[in-house]
Design goal:
It is globular and about 65 Å long. By secondary structure, it is an alpha/beta fold. The longest helix is centred in the first third of the chain and has 25 residues. A hairpin with a 4-residue loop joins strand 12 and strand 13. 30% of the residues lie in helices and 24% in strands. It binds flavin-adenine dinucleotide. The site of flavin-adenine dinucleotide has 38 residues, from helix 1, strand 2, helix 2, helix 3 and strand 4.
Length: 466
């Protein structure tokens, strides 16, 4: 395809946000180009974030499953793998995803321009080529979907060969016997599961007083317990004073006076929006201190012809939401207004081992708001399907209003939690009387299934009413 220099819309960044926008716009008949600074499409999501971490986690959880299954694990044999081994599995998934996504642009005749984009005038961008030269493109409108990158504090030397962030960890060359993970957010906890699952001694430094404090307390406690039980050392309420790289490892000096030593550190504490290279002044825009852009409900920035979606606009900073935002911004551009908006209760899927997923309110939120709620629980160990699969760690909890029986929150811990949650979400999203916990006792579930947990939890909860 020959690329002309003027487009109806230029999308910058080919992650989920950019892809959603570019597809929506080309399908609406607009002449669209997408600019990507890396050599292939897919964004941080495909190359450094969601896809590799989930592929690594999957490989590790299969190894754990094998090693815990007496059918496979005879005569004290056990499967062992290293981070570099399982990385090759992740790479095959990344390649498949990249090819798939490249096909979307080809089929929809969306111009794909490789190089780093920066604004040079209000409707003009320069795209830097690998030889340092610039190509110039113009458009009526722009969508910024440049994503985010790991936050790197100035006083940590990320050039040291044993100091990694969540991008560079994917180039880990040696196989550590001991790792420190600094930052116990979703990314830190997921990588703690991966390394510990590989048998690596794992220390998790949490700057807060509990793990993933946005979760329902019981779920966060369950994760802490399972980490503790699998040997992860959690240090809550700690902040580093400095990180010292040594010849063969790192020493983390904590403000509390403690010191921790390991073969390497994964620093996973915060992210920054990728706006610093965009020369936003040329289009009269400014990002905030975290590199993020403000948008209105149509994903339009303060400058009328410039829109933004995905991690670069901050919360919820999820691939799932970025795809939707991309589709919505395409509607906003083509129709003047988006037809749809992000749902209020965005589900969280946390791919720790065990997995976590929730949607809606937590018990602590409902208690603070003085909502008279009741709890229905189901423990995986009582489900036939979980027993068959040897996946009996976990539970499902449904929070519902005592009087109206409206479902207010669902919290799932255990294998396939991120899939299981969507059954409950589908009912929760129904309006009015269709959203009640009674749905789960009035329907017939396949047997044996994990979905049955909903019936068990619903009966358990309804039995508590008086
Ligand atoms: C380790 C990890 C695990 C994660 N796990 C999950 C998960 O399980 N589920 C989930 O929903 N989310 C997850 N996320 C978050 C998810 O990856 C992001 O929310 C998502 O990638 C954001 O999409 P985006 O389109 O905004 O940006 P990105 O996917 O980051 O894509 C942005 C693209 O813009 C390009 N770009 C940047 N600047 C320029 C420029 N000047 N010119 C041209 N191109 C440019 C970049 O090269 C990149 O390709 C995870 C993130 C990480 C780091």
């Amino acid at each position: 395809m020959t690329v002309s220099n003027h487009f109806d819309v230029i999308v910058i960044g080919s992650g989920p946000g950019g892809e959603g926008a570019a597809m929506g716009l080309t399908k609406a008949g607009l002449n669209v180009a997408i600019i990507e600074k890396e050599s292939s499409v897919g964004g941080g999501c495909t190359h450094w974030g969601t896809i590799p971490s989930k592929a690594l986690r999957h490989a590790v959880s299969r190894i754990i499953e094998f090693n815990n299954n007496p059918l496979f694990c005879k005569n004290n044999t056990s499967l062992h793998s290293t981070f570099s081994n399982i990385l090759s599995h992740a790479k095959t998934v990344i390649d498949k995803q990249t090819r798939l996504r490249q096909g979307f642009y080809d089929r929809n005749e969306c111009a794909l321009i490789f190089g780093s984009a920066r604004f040079i005038e209000s409707n003009k961008v320069a795209v830097m080529q690998s030889d340092g030269s610039d190509e110039i493109y113009t458009a009526d409108k722009f969508v910024i979907a440049t994503g985010s990158r790991p936050y790197r504090p100035d006083n940590v030397d990320f050039n040291h060969e044993r100091i990694y962030d969540s991008d560079s960890i994917l180039s880990l060359k040696h196989d550590p016997r001991h790792i420190i993970i600094y930052g116990a957010g979703v990314i830190g906890c997921e990588y703690a599961s991966i390394f510990r699952g590989l048998g690596v001694k794992t220390d998790l430094i949490n700057t807060r007083d509990r793990l993933l404090s946005f979760l329902d307390n019981e779920v966060s406690d369950a994760l802490s317990y399972h980490f503790w039980n699998s040997g992860v050392v959690i240090r809550n309420d700690e902040t580093y004073e400095h990180v010292e790289g040594t010849e063969d490892g790192v020493i983390v000096h904590l403000q509390s006076g403690k010191k921790m030593k390991a073969d390497c550190i994964l620093y996973a504490n915060g992210r920054t929006g990728n706006t610093d290279k965009l020369n936003l002044e040329a289009v009269s825009l400014a990002a905030d201190s975290r590199g993020q852009l403000k948008v209105n409900s149509n994903y339009q920035t303060e400058v009328e012809h410039v829109y933004a979606v995905g991690d670069v606009i901050g919360y919820p900073s999820l691939a799932s939401a970025a795809y939707d935002q991309g589709r919505f911004v395409a509607q906003a551009i083509t129709k003047g207004q988006a037809d749809n908006y992000l749902i209020e209760d965005i589900p969280t899927g946390i791919y720790t081992i065990p997995e976590i997923s929730s949607v809606g309110k937590t018990e602590q939120e409902l208690t603070a708001a003085k909502v008279p709620y009741e709890v229905g629980r189901s423990s995986f160990k009582h489900l036939a399907r979980a027993q068959i699969a040897g996946k009996d760690i976990g539970s499902l909890k449904i929070l519902f209003h005592r009087e109206t029986k409206e479902i207010l929150g669902i919290h799932c811990f255990g294998e396939r939690a991120a899939e299981i949650i969507h059954i409950g979400q589908a009912i929760m999203e129904q309006k009015g009387e269709a959203n009640t916990i009674e749905y789960f006792v009035n329907t017939t579930f396949n047997y044996p299934t994990m979905a049955e947990a909903y019936r068990v939890a619903a009966l358990n909860g309804l039995n508590r009413l008086f």
